[in-house]
Amino acid sequence: MFMKLLSFLIMSMFFFQCGGDNAVREQAKAEVEQMAKTTSGTATPASGNQQTPSSPRNPIINETLTLVMGNGEVKAGEETCLPITATGFTDLIGLQFSIRWEREELEYVKVDKLELTDLGPQNFGDTHSELGVVALSWIHQSLRGVTLPADAHLFDICFTPKVKAGSKVDVRFEARPVAFEVINVKEELLQFSGKNGQINVVD
Length: 203
Prior knowledge:
This protein is of the alpha+beta class.
């Protein structure tokens, strides 16, 4: 179990580490920037269960966690927040995924209204948000499992558009650089399905 949870966080270390070694941080930033370049403009389908190298040790079951990102409408230069809701959140102890956008189109502001148990700002890797990526890595502290009703609100993610009125900007769930992974209390892997969000920039 602990080996699994350790591997669950390996990829997230680039985002959640804030140590004092500037050289390490710069190397991590360079690697994340390279990932951003190789996937820029190419959306990874937000479905299926793309696993870390250790995932085959855990059985994959025919259950799905579905996350839905809301839409927003806002004037250029003003802030808007997109809600993230979940369905199929049953006896879960771990969750991770990436949220991506085009950095030329949006400026990341913050995550807000955190409602999931044990979810705090420390669970979000926004160190490289200027590259158009924020990662989430959540583990239920007691490992007893969390169950939520359908369409339960988890958190909001907030942006300021950089583009002109009339533009529509996508915000998407992706499996890179932090892969989709959903783990229940039995240490089984669930499928991940995500509905992406969009910001409509108006006059």
